[in-house]
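re the bet — no i am not wrong, look at it urself. input seq straight from the record:
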Amino acid sequence: MAERTVPWLRIGAAYAWRLILVGVVVYGVFGVLGRFQLIAVALFLALVVTSVLRPLADLLNRVLPRPLSVAIALVGSLLLLLGLLALVGNAVAQESDRLAGEFRGGVHRIEQWLRRPPFRLSPGRLSELQRQVTDYIAAHRARLLSSAVSGLGRVVELVTGGALALFASAFFIHSGERLWGWVRDRLLPSGARSAWDRAGRAAWRTFAGYTRGIIIVAATNAVFVGVVLLVLRVPLALPLTLLEFFASFVPLVGSPVALGVATVVALAGRGPLTAFLVLVLIVVIGQLEGHVLHPLVMSWAVRLHPLVVAVSVIAGSIVGGVIGAIVAVPFVSVAWAVLSALRAPPEQLPPPGSQLP
């Protein structure tokens, strides 16, 4: 009788226990990944490297043996990255004396600016703020020193994770298809292999499309920012450009934060007018990225609603900090692609081809 009178309750209960089961599984997966965060991040980075360098390795494989093409792609990209970092370090070292003078003058200009309307801070108040900062550093010197020591430990972890990512990406680029076939045939029951094979290929297609798209968007943003900063003669233009490139991997918030740092540098080094122009740059690049670059470049990946992107970034940052904010959007995109592939009939899906690393 209850089932005939309130069918919505029976249906709701059926969905509820399924959602609870899914939530428990997701919570357990994230708990395991949290315990092995270094390995999880290294493998994620390896997949990113694979999505970028796999096409290059396939192109080189037309004229070279597969192991040699993989080695050239990995070593060449690593040398390019190290060369770019060396160029940034050399630029900072060459301009260190001039930058120190500019920033001293910039701090004085900021003090003069704070004394005028609308802030109207008195010289005594500015001196008090400087004294408070100095006292804070002196009082928390031991804590800051311990943070620096722990930072060295994080550096060791980063080097270890980078080595693991490079090692894993070599195998993913060389024989990712065979690795996926082994996992599919050995770990999945025979009745589920076909469906999960479609899901795995859809997941990789979405992840690779998102990764390549976000790299193109980040590079375009960095080029625009670098040109404008060089034209405005903002100090540290090259390091700020590199910061904009990496910050663009965090959707919605990364680019404004990096340009906020550029605004502070412009205010200290070139004055309020240049800082205002950099603020205008933040608005223009934000509109360009949101309304032109993302819809145009990300058309081959799963296109998520901006609200879903915002919630994903915030949730990822709560769970995993900066790493969680970076991983959240591709994770949601891949999850949605897998769900769509499992629910769609096989004839509606693209042919398998070579869609896995």
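see?? The mean pLDDT is 76. told u. also The chain has twelve helices and no strands. so pay up
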